[in-house]
Amino acid sequence: MRADILVVGGGIGGLTAALALARDGHRVRVLEKAAQFAELGAGLQLAPNATRVLAGLGVLGRVLEAGVRPRRLLLRSALTADELTALDLGEPFLARYGAPYVVMHRSDLLAILYDACLAAGVGLQAGQDVVAVTGDDGAAAAECADGTSYQGAALIAADGLHSGIRALFSADQPVCSGFAAYRGTARIDEVTARSELDEVVAWIGPDLHFVQYPLRAGQIYNQVAVFRSRRYAADPGLADGEWGGPGELDDAFGTCCAQVREATGFLWRDRWWPMYDREPLAGWTRGRIALLGDAAHPMLQYLAQGACQAIEDADALARALAGCPGPQLIGKALAGYQAERAEHAARVQRTARTWGDIWHVSGVGALLRDELFRRRPADDYSYTDWLYGSRVL
Amino acid sequence: MRADILVVGGGIGGLTAALALARDGHRVRVLEKAAQFAELGAGLQLAPNATRVLAGLGVLGRVLEAGVRPRRLLLRSALTADELTALDLGEPFLARYGAPYVVMHRSDLLAILYDACLAAGVGLQAGQDVVAVTGDDGAAAAECADGTSYQGAALIAADGLHSGIRALFSADQPVCSGFAAYRGTARIDEVTARSELDEVVAWIGPDLHFVQYPLRAGQIYNQVAVFRSRRYAADPGLADGEWGGPGELDDAFGTCCAQVREATGFLWRDRWWPMYDREPLAGWTRGRIALLGDAAHPMLQYLAQGACQAIEDADALARALAGCPGPQLIGKALAGYQAERAEHAARVQRTARTWGDIWHVSGVGALLRDELFRRRPADDYSYTDWLYGSRVL
Question: Is B213 one of the annotated active-site residues of the chain?
Fold first, then answer.
């Protein structure tokens, strides 16, 4: 079956879905609200469950050129700088998961996907703010704020954490974690407090963590600082922007080891991100409409799986529609996509919260965590098989 | 050197010390405040670091007759009843530590020590309330409330948690843990909710635990319930007896699994124990006076080492005095006893607190604990070697 498919939202999830669908012969149109296709933020981690899909879409070569393949993921104590545990990303990892672990700039991945979409004939419409959708009759349609409307056989909502289309499925709201994130990239030679260039390092401590890794073939260095806001904890009624400011950042990291304290000086201080997710959603599809990526399962960043799960969605969606015998059965195909993905994505959402709790635990919990970490070897993949998709049985 | 030695306190530590000293040829006199030599409480656990000493004193045979040799120590979830981890006490354990693990009635051990002391010629004086001691001149002396006074070459204070003699060394006070303990023994056929007869089982959960094991060759069953008092937490100014009552016991264990809830019905309800320890003490000896057992290092019961460490003290004390060339060097010998024991006993005190925290942790800390426990085999002795004294290098 080949059909016209509308994708609302031109982020990483939307463009990967558009690319996958276009490669299968569908005519795809992406409607992006912003004036340009662009990604906010800085670094992005792509685990094998995502790079495997990108390989299938023919873009892994460019991803590897633009990104960095770290040798290991390393967890260190933000307080003492001790190494706590690591995940070896070398040959045994590659053999097990069949695809590499890559870190790269979000905007680089978006540009690669954008180019590939263009080459595959995807219609890419920026400046289209979708204000209403339908998908219960024989077709799906999107109406934009400027009066333009689009029709298709199906509509994929990839409109992110604040998805308007999700309101068709649930009245739920994003859940504020009370943690704020600061980001920053800098030229590699400007960052005096960096870790090894072949590592992704997460420094973890009570109610905070700090992540470092290189981007763009090691030319720039990416950092993320995350901490629990005391202001927000004291008054959860505060609006975004009223909590998590630079003073809180400095206070939170003031007790960290010297390297982490120094490294926080290379963060952007004029902007920060309150961290949100949502509760898992029971139903993602209705008629000819389906959610994808953050619109379906926004998650905290602790597993670095937000983009990866969106990319997995795109792959599953394309397979579901490729197996659809005719346009009248699109609703069933979308339900199949949901059946493949929803339970797993919900588990990733929940596990991301727990993994964050593990990073941020204090007291005897931290003692138990460090001991558990100390006892596992770096080539123990028992905690990642379910997520990265082991090919070793 | 042979000398007259005064031991203040006729509990397990005091009588073991008296026995060890008498076996070495010292003339020993034990002064016990109570009208009879007796032990409060019920069950007692003797790890190899204690049974090794008891074997050397020639009383292990009677200890084994009166006690039970469990096959394993088992930790279970008090909430779900799941097995969390175990310590195998069988042949590999015996080979490693050179002595068995035994559980028995406290009063049975005291009776065995009392009989052995009598046979060894120890002077056993009950009803002697020591109100003043000296030990800085050429002799040590104890003065009792009834006016009696005793002299010796050294004085060993084994007068327990509330040691009056400790005031010579420190103005510290017992530290209340805010946990209350209920105990109970019953005829084995009366307890309907017991665990296997060859196991010591600790059911652990948030802010509580419950211990079960058999005594007297399996004829009676011993149980201990421990929980954090909410009344005490809300008002730490409450006196003992004003918190931890039976209503709190029932509330605390109300959320436990059926077996634990049923088992709490076999506890004594007319008496409970607030749980205290103290901070480690820098100095234990002064001139001819030395502390021993709970007087020196009272500890929370989580490692079941209170009696064991007192027995280790007795052994170290006897060796130190056996190596003393003459009465004028007794102070030096006592300092040697302290040097051998103080750091280790302080570590046991601190570790007992931490081990309790591990038992009682909730949330993500419990998840980490259970995972750490799940991954260790029952014959992993890496956490007990320092405590039980491995003979395997």
Answer: yes
A357, A358, A364 member nearest B361 (Cβ)? A364
Which residues of chain A neighbour B354 with C-beta distances below 8 Å?
364, 367
pLDDT in tens, B307-327: 999 999 999 999 999 989 888
Whether A375 and chain B come into contact, CB under 8 Å, resolves to yes
**Residue A386 belongs to some domain of the structure:** no
Q: Which of A203, A198, A194 is nearest to A85 (CA)?
A: A203
Q: Read off the tokens for B280.
A: 């480690």
CATH code for the domain of A346: 3.50.50.60
The shortest CB-CB distance from A364 to any of B354, B371, B376 is to B354
Rounded to an integer, the average pLDDT of A215-229 is: 94
Q: Does A204 touch chain B (CB under 8 A)?
A: no
A374 touches chain B (CB under 8 A): no
Range of the domain at B320: 5-70+104-172+279-362
Model confidence, pTM: 0.92
Domain count, chain A: 1
CB-CB contact of B373 with A372 (8 Å): no
CA–CA separation, B307 and B102 (whole Å): 12
Q: Report ipTM (2 d.p.).
A: 0.90
| Count of CB atoms situated within 10 Å of the CB of A193 | 16
Q: Which residue of A has its CA nearest to B362?
A: A365
Catalytic residue among B150, B213, B276, B337: B213
Question: How many angstroms separate the CA of residue A371 from the nearest CA in chain B?
Answer: 8
Q: Is the residue at A99 inside a domain?
A: no
With a CB cutoff of 8 Å and minimum separation 6, the contacts of B359 are: B75, B202, B204, B209, B302
pLDDT tens across A61-119, in order?
A: 999 999 999 999 999 999 999 999 999 999 999 999 999 999 999 999 999 999 999 99
The whole-angstrom distance between residue B393's C-alpha and the CA centroid of its chain comes to 27
Distance CA A11, CA A4 (A): 19
Per the domain annotation, does B328 fall within a domain? yes
Q: Does A352 touch chain B (CB under 8 A)?
A: no
Q: Could you tell me if residue B117 is inside a domain?
A: yes
